[in-house]
C-alpha cells in the first residue's frame, strides 16, 4: 500500500514523498466500587501521506485504505503542494542517515486478554486497595488496558520498515475520608510485556497507602525552601528541559534555553544520556518518524548541553544535522555520575536528610509553565519535611521559580528511578523555590 502510494505520488508530479500506515487495536476496562463502568474496544487504522513538489509540501490522510481512497489522497496531497509556497528547508531526511537494517528491540508482546479477565483484574486491584483501611470509602476506579499497534513508514528514497509494539497498564485511584476532609491518590504500572506489570493487588495497596498518608493535610505559610520532586513528577521537570531544546523551540526563538548548546545548564555532576535501543523499553525505537537511524547519545555531560533534539527540518533550519528525534526522544537516562557526584545519588531517606527542611512534592496541578521565559508556577501537594523526615501532609500550595535556575539548582538525585516513561529519573532535590500558601 505504501509503495503504491509513493509510486502514484511520483507519477503525479511529486519529486519526493513519504507515507506511513498505522493499525491499532486495544481493550480498556474500568471498574468502580466493584461495578463495571466502561468496556472500550479500539480498532483504528490510517494512512498519512506527505509529498514534495520541488520544495513545496502537501499532506493528506485517510482512514479508508481502499485503493480508490489512496488514489484520492495522493491527488489531494499533490494539489496542496502545488499551491503551497516553497520552503528551502523542506524535504525528506538524508538517505545516508536512514535505518536500512533496524534492530529488533523486542517491543511486541500481545496480551490475549478477554474482557472478563480484565474486569476481574480491575476488581482485584480496587478491592485490595479499599480493604486496607475503613477510611477508604470511595474510589475513582481501577482500569486495565492492553493496546497493540503496527506502524509502517516508507519514503521515495527506498526506505520501507515497520515496527509492531504493545503497551499494557493497570491503574487505581482511591478516595479517603477523614474527619473533615477527603483526599485522593493513585498508583499504576505500565509495560510492554504483560508479565512485567505489577500485581493488581499490589497496585491497589500502593494507591491506598498513598491516599491514606494525605489525610490531615495542612496549608503552609508563604516561604522559600528546598523542594524535592517525586520521580514521576521529576520526569515532567526534565520534559520542560527537552521542550526547550527541541528544534522548533530553537529556530522559532521561543525557548528559555535559546542557543544554550555548549553552555552549563545543569550542575557538573548531572548527566543525561539517550539510549534508544533498550529492549522492551517504553520509548525505544530503532528509527525515528522519518526513518532516520537512532543512536546512543550523551545529551548532557558534566552539566553542559551537548546539542539539541532535532528532526531533519529543524536541523536544516539551524544549519545542523538531524539527531534522529523526529517524533520525540528515546529513553533519556538522568544520572548523578559526573565530577562532584559523590553524595549526589541518594536513597529516599538520605535525600530527606540532606534537605533537612522543605517540601516533598507528590502531586502537581495546573499548567503554569512559560517555555519562553522559563517561569514556573504550579499548584502542588505533598509533605512538609522537618528534621530530615516527613512531618505532615501539605495541600493547597503553589511552588514557583524559573526553570533555568531550577535546573542549575539541582542538588541531588534519588536512586528511586521511575522507568515507566520516556525519561528515567529518580527524585530530584532543588535547592530553593518559592512556596506560596496561606
Characterise the protein shown here.
Helices cover 22% and strands 38% of the residues. It is an alpha+beta fold and 438 residues long. It has two domains: 2-212, PmbA/TldD superfamily (PmbA/TldD fold, 2-Layer Sandwich); 223-436, no CATH class. A six-stranded antiparallel β-sheet has the order 3-2-1-4-5-6. Strands 7-13-14-15-18 form a five-stranded mixed β-barrel. Helix 1 packs across helix 2. It is globular. The termini are far apart.
Give a quick summary of the entry:
By secondary structure, the protein is an alpha+beta fold. The chain is 22% helix and 38% strand.
Structural class based on helices, strands and sheet pairing: alpha+beta
Helix tally equals 9
Could you state the order of secondary-structure elements as H and E? HEEEHHEEEHEHHEEEHEEHEEEHEEE
- What can be said about the biggest beta sheet? 6 strands, antiparallel
Name the beta content range.
35-45%
- Bulk shape: globular
Q: What is the count of structural domains?
A: 2
Instruction: Describe the strand arrangement of the main beta sheet, using strand numbers.
Output: 3-2-1-4-5-6
Average pLDDT reading: 96
How far apart, in Å, are the first and last alpha carbons?
62 Å
